Amino acid sequence: QVQLVESGGGSVQAGGSLRLSCAASRYIYSGVCMGWVRQAPGKGLEWVGTTYGAWRRPAYADSVKGRFTISRDNAKNTVYLQMNSLKSEDTAQYYCGPGGPSNVATMTRGQGTQVTVSS
Q: How far apart are CA 31 and CA 29, in angstroms?
């Protein structure tokens, strides 16, 4: 069982940036897909993006494409989500875990980190 700790959330003005981190309790192998999902108040889980490792570029939801970037540091057991040009609709609790868009509902997640974007 992978334990995950998300951090880096906060409050920011629209147009601003935040960098989220996701620290895993065990080594993130290069072959393991790691994804970010989010949940806005009153809404379901939404896939944000996934890093697949060295053999494939990260994939992103259309809603964040061009603004968000996922990266990983296997030596630090950490996955990052760089969020630029934030919008009010990006306000949500953000989670990370193993997997991609096909297992959003069942993805093992940490406690999440809150991102609030004010316009």
A: 5
